[in-house]
Design brief:
By secondary structure, the chain is mainly α. Helices cover 58% and strands 0% of the residues.
Amino acid sequence: MKSIRLFLAAATLTWLAGTALRIDRHAAALAPVASIISTQAYAQDAPKVEVPRVDVDIHTKGDGVWYLNPLVLVIGGGVLLLIIIALAMGNRGGGTTIVKS
């Protein structure tokens, strides 16, 4: 019953709007037909869809590998950088070069 009342209201409003705007007779006659189609599309109920339940657990119990831990990667990168700097400083040479002629 609700969809019939909705259709009648929409058809009346489109007819009145067509008359008030002085649209030609053919367009005013087609306005209720367009209203029927749009009202029928509006009155359809959406199907009931059961949404599956998804359980996401982000808390692991320590069964991961230690070398993928970001803290270990940062500390390891810092140690590697210090080793490279120490090797570069050690190979700079230790003193003055004396050239004998």
